[in-house]
Specification:
Distance between the termini: 48 Å
Structural class: alpha+beta
Radius of gyration: 17 Å
Strand order of the largest sheet: 2-1-3-4
Helix content: 55-70%
CATH architecture of the largest domain: Up-down Bundle
Number of domains: 2
Shape: globular
Largest sheet: 4 strands, mixed
Number of helices: 8
Number of strands: 4
């Protein structure tokens, strides 16, 4: 099995990066330095013409987009429980994963890269605080999901095994601190994030990507 993951440190590519590390399979992690524009190089666009991360290359075939990659890895390693198998539990997990990817994630992009949505400086300046408030509320929703899982006796968001939702939760919570949302605003979520980060496979990914979990200014 030939597996290669193109990732950017701290990006949403953290999710499949964690799943691959959890799998125990051999894979080649290939860093893409977004700040240097490597995603726009001719070589990279030959793999993904959209110039985005992540890209999973399996047997020479590229797979793009988080949802597709997660589903592919779940099928490659069905015994690892990256997603639930029971139909309703699986549907709920996919619903949460889609919400993280198509709603929470783009909201942060409006904060971190407002230039993608307007070329007017005054509009860019307005986008940041407005979307920060939206993102704060979404982290509150995520905290409620964590609390609900704990109330049901689940160790992780999808059930008994650490998977895609847990890795994405860590990413989104970390992004919140980049946006200036203190970890203390969502204590249940952050206790959970620290538990995710303590998993040996996740710790290896954090070390490889050289991530600081809480990016809020230290006082």
């Amino acid at each position: 099995m030939s597996l290669q993951l193109y990732f950017a440190p701290g990006a949403c590519s953290f999710v499949p990066h964690v799943l691959l590390e959890l799998s125990g399979a051999e894979f080649e992690p290939s860093m893409v330095k977004l700040h240097k524009g490597e995603q726009n190089s001719a070589d990279y666009k030959a793999i993904n013409p959209r110039g985005q991360v992540p890209v999973l290359v399996h047997g020479g075939q590229p797979v793009t987009q988080i949802l597709a990659i997660v589903l592919h890895l779940d099928q490659l390693f069905p015994k690892l429980g990256f997603l639930p198998t029971e139909p309703m539990a699986r549907a709920r997990a996919l619903s949460t994963l889609a919400w993280m990817n198509n709603t929470v994630h783009p909201t942060f992009t409006h904060i971190f890269m407002p230039q993608k949505f307007s070329d007017q400086p005054e509009v860019q300046a307005a986008l940041k605080p407005y979307n920060t408030q939206l993102f704060r509320g979404m982290l509150g929703e995520l905290q409620a999901l964590v609390q609900g899982a704990e109330n049901q006796g689940q160790a992780w968001l999808s059930g008994e095994r650490l998977g895609a939702l847990d890795a994405y939760s860590l990413t989104l919570a970390r992004w919140g601190t980049i946006a200036g949302i203190a970890a203390s605003e969502h204590p249940v979520l952050w206790r959970f994030v620290e538990k995710v980060a303590a998993d040996p496979a996740v710790s290896r990914v954090i070390a490889r990507e050289r991530l600081q979990l809480n990016m809020a200014p230290q006082t």
